[in-house]
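Ticket #189: bound-state structure for zinc ion.
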Amino acid sequence: MLFPEGVSVDGRTGEVSPATDRYTKTLADLRGFFRDSAKLDEMVATQGEVPVYEVIGYRKAESDLSFGTTIMSPGKVGDEYFMTRGHFHVRRDRGEVYYTQSGEGLLLLESRDGDTRVVEMKPGICAFIPPDWAHRSINTGPEKLVFTWFCATDAGHEYGEIQERGMRKLVVDRGGEPFVAANPNFAER
Ligand code: F6R
Ligand code: ZN
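RESOLUTION: The complex was predicted; output attached.
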């Protein structure tokens, strides 16, 4: 049986306590996601294990709801800001909410039929992710980007499509400002 409890979420560090699971993605784990793969290889060769983001979860298999944090480091691969892999949910009827607590970034979303939207991520903004929109978060600032996500436990993650074909847009640094550009490597399937 499940019992209620208060879970501490630190909006600066993203620490969740108690947590049920956590993982880190490093630059090497993200090979294939950034446009400039030669730059990524060079960074991995010279800098070793660079953490790009950490995910800390509070999930109970018996509950319909889960939540947790994503803590994103600042940084770029070439002119492309550090970002998450991006995914659709396996359950197409499951949306999500991202509540940004510190830092700044952009949430890039793409519908199944190719519509693209960008939602600003900054403290106080709760981003609504409708069902069946792929979502990727991007840290465009100089500090950590920390957000809390709330999702159905059974939503599931489908990474393959975004990994294979990329997203239609990417977010690059243009003169010190984030710029949403068309992805030249986007492969329509
Ligand atoms: C869960 C969710 C987030 C992301 C996390 C990492 O549905 O959207 O918890 O999983 O921000 O991003 P991905 O999973 O795309 O590597
Ligand atoms: Zn999600």
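RESOLUTION NOTES: Residues 55, 70, 84-87, 96, 135, 137, 149, 151, 155, 157 surround fructose -6-phosphate (ligand 1) (CB under 6 Å).
TICKET STATUS: resolved
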